[in-house]
Amino acid sequence: MADGEGGRGRGGGDGGRGGDGGTFLPPSIEAAWGLRERPSKGPKPGLTLDRIVDAAVALAAAEGLGAVSMGRVAKELGVSTMSLYRYVSAKSELHVLMQEAAVGAPPVLFPPGTGWREALEAWAWALREVYHRHLWMLRLPVSGPPATPNLVAWWEQALVALAGTGLDAGAKISVTMLLGGFVRNDALVMADLGSVIAGGDASPEEVLSRYARTLRRLADPERYPEVARLLDSGVMDLPDEPEAEFRFGLARTLDGIAVLVEGRAS
Q1: pTM attached to this predicted model
Q2: What is the pLDDT, as a whole number, of residue 193?
Q3: What single DSSP character describes residue 138?
Q4: Which of 25, 109, 164, 242 has its CA 20 to 30 A from that of 41?
Q5: Do the Cβ atoms of 250 and 182 come closer than 8 Å?
């Protein structure tokens, strides 16, 4: 994935080897797995990969992911841009390390013997909390399957939840992707709506009420009869509690997974 800010080629050093036991991962990602020492002596004393990642995460939290560039991170650390390339070879690689640091290891979400539905529900709520704590992560491009320790640990938790369902490996992966995608999309929509409301001069109640009044004027009941019935019901006049849509969508997603699990069992 090119990002316009590459330094040395990805997979540099021996991180790109495959046939002789390498991982095909860049050196900085191998360091996250403990496969090589993290550089500790850079061009400026005290510069480390962890400091670079922490500075990038802080910048994203304060100003959004768009503010993160190799040059800007270097400026925050008081070093030259080129000095960062000793530790991380491209911005896309830095993004992976930022996500790894922000997501953290999953907490203990459910005790052994928990039913698959309750376990997946706990997993989804915990993942939602991570996204809402680090909204900038929603702007990261999806570049592939989990490739760092914490992300793989989250994946492991979902697979543990599905262990007793009788689903085959492919179905377990699909279920995990489906549920993770739902959580991410819900957080993204809520973040975008929240940003619009926060940027205006009205409360969420006023925004929704204005929308309903405007739609009543514009949507001809003869052309949009179902929309008219919806507006007449009053459901659009007041906002739901913040977690209502997530609860509804999560329950319906788990209902669908239940059909799959029950079908395989029978």
Answers
A1: 0.82
A2: 81
A3: G
A4: 25
A5: yes
